[in-house]
Amino acid sequence: MPSIRRTTIALAVVGALGAAPAAASASTLITISGATSSYPLVALLAAKYRKVDKDKVRFKITQGGASVGIADVAAGRVTIGDSSRDPLPTDPTGLDFYPIAKYAICVVTNESNPLSNLTTAQVDSIFTGKTRNWSEVPGAKASGPIDLISRTSTAGVLTSFETLFLSGSKPSSLAAQESSEGLLKKQVENDDNSIGFLSNYNADSGGVSSTPYNGVACTRANAASEAYAGLARFYEVTKGKAAGAAAGFISWIDKSAVAKKIISSQWVPISEK
Length: 273
Known about the structure:
Elements: E1 7-9, E2 28-34, H1 39-52, E3 57-63, H2 66-74, E4 80-83, E5 95-110, H3 120-127, E6 147-151, H4 156-165, E7 176-178, H5 181-190, E8 194-199, H6 200-203, E9 208-211, H7 220-224, E10 231-239, H8 244-255, H9 257-266
Parallel strand pairs: 2-3, 2-4, 6-7, 6-8
Antiparallel strand pairs: 1-5, 4-10, 5-8, 5-9, 5-10
Helix pairs in contact: 1-9, 8-9
């Protein structure tokens, strides 16, 4: 089997997709759980892989957050964990992290309150609760208190956001916490005074306003060129070195031109830039 790009460390993650039809019962089942932000990509890759592998494998993919996926794969409950953050020293030992794509994290507001730009200092001040009112934010159309929308502690995007935007600090305890990207997006859509953060895939799908960061728009193109600073990685995580059907799937993601085309549609291949 071709060599697979991997990062070995104490970590794990899990993903989600639907089970295959009963007719494929003789095929090998790959179970995945984990990050909600990487689910759309992993689901697309799994669906395509089933076709190119002529249904020799099938997938069952569930979500729940990167930390859930990591715990599941470490405990042997799933074949692969999906992670939207880098490995941490606190992760379980004996896990291998395989980077599969890069993505941008976008600061988002309600469409009624588009912002032309936020600096590093402004993002930090807003999300850590130092700036509490929209009147303190240049160019804001909203008025009144800022409603912070964040993610629960299981979210890998939250960990990546803290690292990339808050210098390792945590969002204010005043922030509402949502368990998925979809729920966070819905909150921002429904609240004129809200601000949150999403992967570029969900930020680009409409309903919210994506804010330029340090003068650079949060787009797939700017992520690919690395002009945009808020760039993170998705990983497939296995317990020990990937083997069997899981190794075949991960190697296909790493080497296949078809997989790279899927990744390039909304995300950034690891090998790009």
